[in-house]
Every structure is written in C-alpha cells, then in structure tokens.
Amino acid sequence: MSAQAGTAPRPRISLDSRLRATALSEWIKFRSIRSGPLNLLLTAAIVLLGAWLLDAQTRSGWATMPPGARASFDPIGTTFNGIQLAQLFVGALGVMTVTGEYTSGLIRGTFLATPQRAQVLAMKALVFTVVVWAWCTALSFPAFFLGQSILSSPAKHVGIGAPGALTAVFGAGLYLTCVGLLGVFIGVVVRRTPAALSALFGLVAVLPFAVNLLPSTLGSQVGEYLPSNAGEQAWHLLPGGAYMLGPWSGLSVLIAYVAVAALAAFALIRRRDA
Amino acid sequence: MDERAGATIEAQSLKKVYGNTTAVDGIDFQIKPGRVTGFLGPNGAGKSTTMRMILGLDLPTSGTVTVNGRGYQGQVWPLHEVGALLDARAVHPGRSAYNHLLSLAAANGIARKRVDEVLEQVGLTSVAHKRAGGFSLGMSQRLGIAGALLGDPGALLFDEPVNGLDPEGILWIRTLMRTLATEGRTVLVSSHLMSEMALTADHLLVIGRGRMLADMPLSELIARNSGERVEVRSADPQRMAADLRAAGAQVTLEPDGTLGVLGLGSKQIGELSYERGHVLHQLRDVTASLEEAYFRLTGESVEYRAPIPVAA
Description:
The structure holds 2 protein chains of 2 kinds.
Chain A: H1 15-31, H2 35-61, H3 67-72, H4 75-79, H5 83-104, H6 106-113, H7 117-151, H8 165-190, H9 193-211, H10 216-223, H11 227-231, H12 247-271
Helix pairs in contact in A: 1-7, 2-5, 2-7, 5-8, 5-9, 7-8, 8-9, 8-12
Chain B: E1 9-18, E2 21-31, E3 35-40, H1 47-54, E4 62-67, E5 82-85, H2 97-107, H3 112-122, H4 137-149, E6 155-159, H5 167-182, E7 186-191, H6 194-200, E8 203-208, E9 211-217, H7 218-225, E10 229-234, H8 237-246, E11 250-253, E12 259-262, H9 266-276, E13 280-286, H10 290-298
C-alpha cells in the first residue's frame, strides 16, 4: 500500500470511460441478485403461457363466435394479452432496482463511488433498458409464433409478414421496457418499495378501470391517453375502437409519461440528501 | 506544517439545517494526515451529518467542505481519494460480499484482483461468495471496511466503527486505524465512546449541538479540562490540611491520610510545605480521564440530559 495514495495526481479520466465504469457497476449489481433474472424468467413464462392459453381458448370457441366478434378479433392483441399481467412483473423489477438500494442504504455506497448522481441514474436506466428490451423483444417472437400456430385455420391468424405484425412484435418488447422504466423513475421519486409499487400499478393497471366510471365518451377520451391504454396499441394489430391511437402514436404517449417521470427523477436525485 | 502528504479534509463555516433543526451550526476544521482524528460528541451532536457532508451525501445548507481542496461531488472516481464506513448494514442482503465489492470497484476503475486483496485483508475470503444478508454485524463491519480500503485512499472516515462489535473486532479495528494513520493517511473516526477515543485518537474534534467545542490533541484536551487536582501525602496530614485550607485550597482527607487538593498547584504546595516545615511523602498531579474532561467541556451542550441517579 502506498502511504500517500491520495496525493498522486490522477490522469484525467475521460467521460467515456467514466460512463462505461458506471454502466459496468450497474450491470454487476443487476445480475448479482436473484430477483433480477428471476423476474425476467417469470415475465417470459407469463407471456408465453398467456399466448398459449388465450389463443387455445379462442380457437376452441371460434365456431360459436358471433360474426361481429370474428370480424373485430385481433389475433396479435389476443396473443400478447398476457402482457397485462407481465407488465406488473417488469414494472416491479424496475421499481425494486432502485428502491432496493434506497431501503438497504446501499444508495450511499453507490453515491460514494460515483457522486455524479445523474450519471448513476442514467447508466442504471440504460443497463435496465438494454437488458429488459433485449429479453422482452426476444421473447415476443416465440410468443407470436406460438400464438399464431395455435390459432390456425379456421380461426383468424396472421404471419409475421402481415402488415403491422412485425411492428406489434417489436411493440410488445418496447411496451414492457417502457413500463419497466416508468418503474425505475417512480422508484427514484418515491424511494419506498410499497409506495412506488402502488403508484406504478395504480397508473398502469388500476386507472384504466377507474376512467371507465366516467361518462362514456369522456371516459374513452381520457382513457385513450392513459399510459397503458395508449402504449398497448403498440402490440395490437387492430385499433380497439374509435378512441384509440395507432401503434406509434400510442407508444409515443407512453414514452411521454416515462419522460415526465424521468425529469422528476433526475431533478430530485441531484437535490435530495441521500 | 507539512500539508503535502495524505489528504486534508477542510470545512469552512459548514452548516446544515433540517427543517427547524440546526444539525451542524457553522463549524470549521482541518483534518490532517498521519494521525487518527477522533470525532467525539453525544448522539445527535452532528457527527454523522458532518461526515455525510464531507462525503457529498448531504448537501450543506451553507459553507463548504473539501477533501484535498475539492468538494466530494466534484471528485472523479473518489474511492481512490476517500474511503468510508458509514453503515455496515448498507449492503443489499441478496448480494454476495464479492459482488458487492466488485460493483464498487468497477464504478471506480479498480481492478478485480484488488477485490480479492481487500477481502483477504479483512479476513472474509472464505465467505466472499456468501450472501451478505447472512453476515453477523462483525462480518458486515469488515465488509464495509473492505469497501473503504478498495481504492487505497489517502483519507478514511469511520462512523461509529466499533458499535456492536465483540472485543476481538474492536481490537482489530483499533489496530487497523492506527496502522492506516502510521502509513501517512488521514483517519477520521467518530464515536460517542470516550474510552475508545482515549485509546485510538491522537487528535480530537469535540462537537456538541452542532458546534465545535474543541479541536486539539488528546493530551491537551485532557490537560486543559482537568480540575488540576493534586494528591498530597505527608507526615502530619491534619496539620497539612489546615495549612492548605489557610492558603485558600479545598482539601479532602481520605481515610488513608491522603489529601486531595483543589485550587493550588503542586509547585505552590511544595513551596508551602517547605515554608511550614512539612515532611512530604508524595506530591502528585492527578490528570483527569478523557471522560471527566469531556463532561466538563460538553456540560453545557448535551442535548438530551437525564438526571444522573444518585446511589442510595
């Protein structure tokens, strides 16, 4: 050990290597607790099982389905409907990636190593985005093919080359990533696991039901711009009614919510005592 | 003064207010390398807040604190400059000791083999891949210290490091801190345990109610705050006592004939004995313990005071 370790002038460290060091640290943290990989496995199980069960049910009931329902049947939206449940797991993973550090006190250790807090949050979000996006997109393809092969004739089904099909498959991965990121940023703002989970689940899972209680047109108009209602257009093939945005504009609305949460998170993480 | 070696931690008019409570009330200090500086004060005096401000975790309401002339938040890869043990339990319970240290090392561009080295140094090699949540307090403390040593820093901060440790662990930490200071590093250790401070610290910062009460070497603190009591043994204690009282001293007579004298120094007592023809057997200055010195100093600033029970 050198006795005067602190006095040697350190070489200037480029921003690039600083960012890479922070990202590597966040990646090590992500992969070294069981809940991360476990959560991703559960997400996969739910999406694949969902595709299998929902499409098998449709297929067996196809003969008795009224013609109107057949016409508006969305083979991709039904296949991916397991996302409604899977998003809660991805969102919880996002929340706990952050609140796990705050509740254990580890966040202080993180900030001791990297006092540039915005850099920590940015790299944490980046690592999360890359891992979750890659996993969920990779997962959407087998779910799509599994679902469509189960539907088969005479039930309505589509191939990957059908207009909008590929968009929906990528949309599924992007949607789940956005919900997870929303969890990350809400986690930074709220810091406590139960409160952050409540806020996230309320926003993506409860609010869509709550707006249904509003008078019908108003409910639909408001509902259209809720994060989950808007975002899920990205993994549907057919728009579900008059008040529905298309896939990309729907996803953009969800991304806008993520951006607002991110702004709040970056503003607060720099100003608050850790 | 040689300020070239190690890292100097310096605060100027450092102040922290939480709501209506002033935790740290405009303190100044300079912590120098090569010695163990003790940060002493009752619970709630502002020790931890000050340490968190040094480390950039809490932002000062006003004033500045720097390490080697720079604020912590401006440091790039600060583990090379400053190592800290704040709360030993601040580890994700599901992560292994090795991965915990590896993530910290990666964040500061520290090589993987350094993780093995510090684990070895603190004696955790055999449990490196076990979940930190299952560690005893002593093991967690060692893991926290391993984290502080990772970057081979010039300055080390320990917040109440011996709390809850067994005697062996206490001895280990005490020795470690002395060694680190001997190597030329700056060591700041906070404690509310006077006996611990008396054994480890060379220099003391005493804080009470957010204000700096003393900033001086341990020996000087004790000397200045001792009551200057002198013990006297002489051939005729009764007559000696009467003469001392006549000279204005407060005198207590012990059953064994020893006189406890306050208000006169040993020099004056010696001269008085000579003039009055006393035969002295012993003349001894009694230094106070750090504890006595401390209570004299903080008497006015202990925030939560309970009446001391009187033995029946």
